[in-house]
Amino acid sequence: MTNPASFKYFRTSPEIIRLAEMLYILFPLSLRNVEDLLHERGIDVSHETVRYWWNRFGPMFASEIRRKRVQQLRAFSKWKWHLDEVFVKVNGKRHYLRRAVDHEGEVLEAVVTKRRNKSATLKFLKKLMNRHGCAEEIVTDRFASYKAAFREMGALEKQKTGRWLNNRVENSHLPFRRRERAMQRFRRMRSLQKFASVHSSVYNHFNQERSRTSRDTFKLTRAAALSEWRQ
Questions:
Q1: What are phi and psi of 184, to 5 degrees?
Q2: With contact defined as beta carbons under 8 Å apart, do 195 and 186 qualify?
Q3: What is the reported pTM?
Q4: Phi, psi at residue 144, to the nearest 5°?
Q5: Which of 73, 99, 120 is the last residue of a domain?
Q6: DDE domain: which residues (predicted)?
Q7: Could you tell me the residue range of the domain that residue 108 belongs to?
Q8: Per-residue pLDDT tens over the stretch 31-82
């Protein structure tokens, strides 16, 4: 996936770096857990090395995955979007992690904001639509800032609300919540935004919707995703 020149000055092989990145981003493991797992496989690296790899290569891997998937799903993902946000504490202060997913559960965008008002919602919607176009139907909760933002954009007829209509996006928060507990919260808003963006892209790549396919199909798609990651 990544240009070989990116690994030019690293003594560790790209395969080991990709393995460490996958373990840390995809599974609810701490840096020291990844260090122990690599040690069991005969790879002696420090957890600080894994942290450096994450900061260096995580956004790079995520941007490549995102670029490919946006090109593939731009037309397919315009039927219905689901929007929601969760509270995240950063140094004791409340922030909002906003997430948009399509009808298949593909995470389209993850943005961290300090407020939950109309201006923050407008900024999130404009970023989402600039990258993915405009959906035919957008499901949200009944919070007033969504209605005010859609009214200002002239797209109030696209908004749909309902008691259980937004379960798709609410369930998409669960993998991030598991990672948040393993990382013992976040200390900066910038690191939260960085991790949320990278985590959603990598999770999209490996998420195969196993409950909706047969076992044989799931194994084929899982092997294809892992093969593409290693390349």
A1: 55, 50
A2: yes
A3: 0.78
A4: -65, -30
A5: 73
A6: 79-208
A7: 76-187
A8: 899 999 999 989 999 999 999 999 989 888 888 888 877 766 655 667 889 9
